[in-house]
Specification:
This protein is of the alpha+beta class and about 180 residues long. The chain contains three helices and ten strands; from the N terminus they run H-E-E-E-E-H-E-E-E-H-E-E-E. The strands form three sheets. A five-stranded mixed beta sheet has the order 7-6-10-8-9, covered by helices on one side. It has a three-stranded antiparallel beta sheet with strand order 2-1-5, covered by helices on one side. It has a two-stranded antiparallel sheet with strand order 3-4. Strand 3 and strand 4 form a beta hairpin.
Length: about 180
Amino acid sequence: MLKLITSKFMQLLVITFFILSSNLSQASSSEYQLGPGDEIEIFVFQEPELNVRAKISQAGFINLPLIGQVNLEGLSGEEAKLKVENLFKDGYLVNPYVTLTVRQYRPFFIHGEVKNPGSYKYQAELTIEQAIALSGGLKDRASGSEWVVLRGYPQKPLKAKKSTIIMPGDVIKIEKSFF
């Protein structure tokens, strides 16, 4: 009887593990990715000369003391933090503790059939409908629903609705209507 209970418990434990691990991978894939134009601050605990405030270059790099150029494009904040810690660990510091903060997010862009296409400062929880309003509204021939957002590294297109939330670095394309 005890063997049967232990076996059932192990099966339940394995199933729970797979469910949790699939949920974690989905969460991490939707996590914000650093990119060109983001202004970040790196703080190395008890090493003030290694602290950096920098804007990620168009090529995706920042310069770190002792290390030189480091590519952070496409990394989550946690991945970038671990990368910087490992670089400092490799011959420079024994046990570095790094904090990485995004101080200013890169702008988003909107083009196509809007009155004022261009780049706009990122605002948290901004929807496509609000982004269109910021850009002066739709032109007469604009589609009311054919909107595409390019997001991530590499950029992937996704169909958008009025309620789609804009992320830093998004490129919004408003198509023409055929009717």
